[in-house]
Amino acid sequence: MGRIAWREVGVGLVVPALVIALWQAVAMLGWVNPQVLPSPLAVVEKWIAYLLPMQPYTEGNWLLWALSGELIHDSLGSLYRVVVGFAIGAGLALPLGLSMGASARVYAWLNPLVQLLRPIPPIAYIPLSILWFGLGNPPAVFLIALGAFFPVLMNTIAGVRQVDSIYIRAARNLGASGSTMFLRVMLPAAVPYILSGVRIGIGTAFIVVIVSEMIAVNNGLGFRILEAREYFWSDKIIAGMITIGLLGLAIDVGMNRLNNHLLRWHRGLEH
User: Fold this and answer.
1) Residue 5: per-residue pLDDT
2) Do 196 and 212 fall into the same domain?
3) Domain hosting residue 146, numbered range
4) Domain boundary among 13, 48, 67
5) 128 and 33 together in one domain
6) Average pLDDT by consecutive 10-residue portion of the chain (271 residues)?
7) Is 29 in the same domain as 129?
8) Domain count of the fold of the chain
9) At how many degrees (to 10) do helices 40-51 and 3-28 cross?
10) What is the pTM of this model?
């Protein structure tokens, strides 16, 4: 990582550091009930205990302790649902979006249905998802796929339909066929829109997975936050929220770097 990148990271940490310092000062002065808003140090302690909890077990006549890694299991469970649900949603949205963007007839047939279903939030499907799929991973994956579907679909349609007409006329003048026009002109020009939709879709999938885990499954970060709420463990709630934020940040940074790598040719990335 270069000096400029480290400088950007340092600048980005200034505001969070100030917020944490203010939060700690408010907690130390006793201005808020620690049961309602625990201090950052208490949250860190709970986060470490959540990450590396000790579980007793017996071996012969000896009582031993082992690390259970509750946070690791919950994080992996949530990530698994996000990956599977997003893969299904994006896998369905991408070809459909390409078809709707490239064909005015397909767009005319399907757009009314898409615009009817798009404003309905995935959370509204929770009762139906439980009726259709029961409890466990299937309803959670269904809701995540639904949440990721429309951002990828709409951005793909917009990307294909907004290809610069200069490129299309130039390809036609050069005698490009319909398939060549689509594969060599429309699709590459739509890639920036598609990647933006993928980035938004992953963020939506993370939101939906937390909600679905609070209702349909018995593990994951959402389930653990709901469990902590039942016992008034505010520090564990915030620790779970911080974990969600860190995972989301890591995925977003990875997607941003992937976008920059795949779009090196794009004039919008020139400096």
Assistant:
1) 57
2) yes
3) 70-269
4) 67
5) no
6) 60 80 85 81 79 55 53 85 92 90 87 91 88 86 92 89 72 68 73 86 86 81 84 84 85 80 60 45
7) no
8) 2
9) 110
10) 0.78
What pLDDT is stored for residue 206 in this prediction? 84
Of 149, 152, 145, nearest to 101 by C-alpha is: 152
Residue 116 host element (H or E): helix 104-117
Whether 236 and 134 share a structural domain? yes
- Same domain for 74 and 58: no
Structure token digits, residue 206:
């993370």
Task: Say which CATH number the domain at 155 has.
Answer: 1.10.3720.10
Helix (H, G, I), strand (E, B) or coil at 234: helix
Decide: 89 and 156 in contact? Cβ < 8 Å: no
Taking CA atoms, 39 is separated from 24, 58, 140, 270, in Å, by 5, 36, 33, 44
